[in-house]
Design brief:
- This protein has one domain: Metallo-beta-lactamase, Chain A, CATH 3.60.15.
- The chain is 19% helix and 30% strand.
- The protein contains 5 helices and 18 strands.
- The strands form 5 sheets. The protein has a 6-stranded mixed β-sheet. It has a 5-stranded mixed β-sheet with strand order 14-15-16-17-18, with helices on one face. A 3-stranded antiparallel β-sheet has the order 3-2-4, with no helix packed on it.
- A hairpin with a 5-residue loop joins strand 2 and strand 3.
Length: 234
């Protein structure tokens, strides 16, 4: 398997849930009180069967093109080659690049050859909850779309990708694990966002269930150290 990070860059986010680009030379202490520094980083994983995109970032465009599309092309992947889009959850910093929206034109899938995998409860909750965490206008197009598969809490996709509802970072957050040729790739989304968070015990206020999230991070970190070939991606 080949793992390709697709960073959209670093941003600060505060209680308004607005993501502001964090440039070289910026100082976090100059941002609004309570601001967090985050990196928006979807991943592509190339297997023997698929080219899988895990989450779709903020959906920023440059010169009329999705930055995510450009990142993929820079890695030698045409966006039309993506066969699966696996979503940990639908917060706007993870779901912004699912659909292409241009003024005066109908919405279209950002990855036209792919099947989209979204937790059934997460989809319903996103439309119930709405702003500021969920920009439902970004993925209204996906409701009842034939290329969208709504997942139950536990299961497998094509026999080699497992999904599991954690309800940790967000109420209906899910994680994925791929097993192929004796290797395991794990995608934890915002349940496992950064290496330092995996290593240390702390409860984050921005998680739906902070204690559960902490315990899962510790569990996965220990598991990853025991098992060769286990990658934590986020």
């Amino acid at each position: 398997m080949k793992i390709i990070p697709l960073s959209e860059g670093r941003f600060t986010v505060d209680q308004t849930k607005q993501f502001v680009p964090f440039s070289e030379g910026d100082q976090l202490q100059e941002k609004p009180v309570g601001s967090l520094l985050v990196e928006i980083q979807p991943f592509a994983v190339v297997t023997g069967y698929d080219i899988i995109l895990f989450d779709s970032g903020l959906g920023f465009s440059k010169n009329g093109r999705l930055q995510l599309h450009q990142n993929l092309m820079d890695a030698g992947i045409n966006p039309s080659e993506i066969t699966k889009v696996c979503m940990s959850h639908l917060h706007k910093d993870h779901a912004g690049g699912l659909v292409i929206q241009k003024e005066g034109e109908p919405d279209q899938l950002a990855f036209p050859s792919a099947r989209y995998y979204i937790n059934r409860k997460e989809m319903a909750f996103a439309f119930e909850k709405g702003l500021p965490s969920y920009e439902t206008n970004r993925f209204q197009f996906l409701q009842n779309h034939p290329q969208v598969e709504l997942l139950d809490d536990e299961g497998r996709i094509d026999g080699y990708i497992s999904h599991h509802l954690t309800g940790a970072h967000s109420r209906f957050h899910q994680v994925f694990e791929i097993k192929e040729d004796g290797k395991t790739v794990f995608f934890g989304g915002d349940d496992a966002p950064q290496l330092q968070q995996m290593r240390h015990r702390f409860v984050a206020k921005y998680d739906f269930d902070g204690r559960k999230t902490m315990e899962l991070r510790q569990q996965w970190w220990k598991q990853g150290k025991r098992r060769s070939g286990l990658f934590f991606l986020s």
